Each structure stands twice: as structure tokens, then as C-alpha cells.
Task: structure prediction
Amino acid sequence: MLDSLLKQNIAVLAAAIFGALLLSLVLILGFVLRPQIERSAADTAQMIQSLELSFRQMDPFQQIHFAEALRTGDAPDVLVAETAPQDANMQRSWFSHYFLRVLSDQHGIAASNVRIDAEGRVWARMVTADQPYWLSLRTLPATDPIAGLAIASGIAMLAALAGGIALQQRIALPLKRLEGAVSRMSSPSDAYDINIEDPREIAAVSRALADMSKRLQLAEADKALMLAGVSHDLRTPLTKLRLILAMLKDADADLVAGAERDVIRIENMLGQFLDFAHGFEAEQTRQVPLRSLLQQAIHSCAAPTTVVLDVPADVIIRVKEVALLRALDNLLTNALRHGKPPIALSARINDRDLVIEVRDAGHGISPEDARELMRPFARGNAARAGEGTGLGLAIVDQVARAHRGNIEFEKGAEAFTARLRIPQVVLA
Result:
């Protein structure tokens, strides 16, 4: 779920803000609201006790006269009623609950003699000789301060999150530029072409990538020079050896034929090694007819007459032509060498994706084992004594990745299929 740096940072920020606000609420509750409620309760208890003492010291006539004086007085904070208000038993907030509990527990004021109405007025019951009176002595907050703090905290949290997300997105911009520059480096010869100056940590990573890119370019240039030298130095004596074999007219024919096969084998192995070492990333894509390309692959294989072609007509694709031909040649060679005829080479179009299949009637191997053979120099048991180099499927995988595609294998009851998927290359 938290699969990106942005999501992780937002989650950490939200948790930190929530924790800080919760701690603030607890501290405000413990060191601000509770002492305030307790002081209010103490003042209210003192007023109630003073009024009760005053009423007890008066005769009934004085009590009635005093109550009427309070009722008609100019003090707006003191109200007098014969009965408690209808909503005076509705304790609407934690504040009022705790206020009544402090009055009862700490000051001995019975909860039945105190009420709080919907507007936050505190009503106290005064017993007189004539009839009891209810006096409104003071006003508490009509709404729960905790609810107000919670709303304010929620707004503050949303504002902090919005600011944090905006800040994180600003921080993520250099990372996105870094990601884009690295994703464009499809081969070691591609240069890292971005300069990030801040923040300092990302700038350091950018400089390290630039240095690594330069080293890779130098290593790639050295490798290309070495491969060119190896190719030249090995192919020259092979050409001379071919010429010598051609001039040996009086030699044993079987011996000459065997030597020529060895020369061809060495050349093929050398070609496989050089293809794998060079890679196919540097080759440019070009538009080619799909049918013509597959026909060319069939004609180049060892037994073209055993391969059946099934391909739609008039389809144009944009691919690395030489690389794809090399991959098809390797797949057909494997099918002819390790499978059984008939061999089928087919292609189909899925949206703009190209799917090429090479199917033979052999038992084949499991897809898991086939994927293991995609490792360079990995060879199956049937090929260990053969003429392969162990690079055939590795080159096919290399070609697939050069096209941003992949190679799949499927083993059926009477067939084995190698499937090459290349996305977004079909033009018409």
C-alpha cells in the first residue's frame, strides 16, 4: 500500500501530526480545562452554600421577599424560577458532567439539587419554608470545549497535511527528474544528462550517477574496441584456414569435410559470443514487412522446408531487424535441433503488440527449466555434448529486452512453444 516515498512520508506526517494533536488535547485537558472546571465548581459551591446559609437565617417572609428581590433585580446572571427548566436535566457535554461530579465529590453538593440547562446555565435548588426556589447562579460553556478543540485540531491537521503534501511534492520533483534521467539510460553507452543542484543529498546522488555514467561509457568504449580486435584477430586465421582446406585437393575427403565443419562451428560460436557481448541496444529500429522478415528467418535456418509459416499479410512493424532475425534464428535452431517436426513459425497481432511463436512437436522441457536456460552459458542435458554455446536463449532474451518485450515458454501434451512478445511495434 505504502509503495512510494510520497505515500510513506504522508503517512509518517499524518501519524506525527495526529500524535502531536492528541498529546496537545491531553495536556490541555489535564492542565487547562480540569483546573478551570474545578475552580468554577468551587466558586459555584461557595455561592450555593452562602445562599443556603442566608435562606436558613431568614424567616419565611424574608425568604419570599429576598427571592422576589432576586427575581426582579437587575443582575442578569441570577434567574429565579419555582421549578427547574424542562431541559435542565440534559447534560450535553463532558464539561458539565465533570462539573457536577466535582460539585458532588469535592464539595458535598447533591447532584439532585443542581441542574444545567441547554444554554449552559447552572441551576441550584434552594429549600425555603414556603416553597423551593431554583436559582441560576452562573453560566458554563454551552458547547463542549473538547468538541471545539477536536474540530480546531482537525482543521489544523488538514492544513498541516496540505502543507506537508505540497512540501513533499516539491521535494519529490528532483527525485522524479532523477528517475526520468535514469529510465532514459537504456544501455551503458547512454549518457546521464541531468544536473540537480538541490537538495544536497539528491544532488550528491545525481553527481554519483553522472560519474558512474562516464565510467560505464569508457568501459563500453573499451569493450567495443576489444571486441573489434578479437573479431579481426580470430576471423583472419579462420579465413586462412578455410583457404588452406580448399587447396588440399589430394587430402582425405572425410578429413577435409570434418575440418571444414569445425571451422564453421568455430565461426558460429564466435558469432554467438560477439552477438551476446555487443548486445542489441545500439541497433536502430526500422520499418519492415512482417511476412518478409519471417520468411527471411526461415530461409536462413538449417532446414527451411520443415518450417510452416503462418503470418498475417500486409503488416508493417518497427523493430531492430538484425536483432530480431538473430532471435528467430536461435529459436528455429533450437526447435530443429531439440524438437520434432513439424516446426511452425507463426505471428499474431494484439492491438499494436506483436506475438511470434515457434512451435515443434517434441516433448520439450518445463517452462521453469527453459527459463533457467536463458542464463548465459546455461546448457540443457541434451545439449551438453552438442555444438551449442549456451548463449542461444540468452541472446533471445537480450533481443526481447531490447524491444521492451519478453520471452515465454509453454509445454503442451504434444508440442513445445517458445513465444516472443514485443509491445507497441505494429504500424499497419
Remarks:
- The mean pLDDT is 77.
- Residues 5-56 form the longest helix (52 residues).
- The two ends are 40 Å apart (CA to CA).
- The chain has three domains: 5-147, 200-277, 282-422.
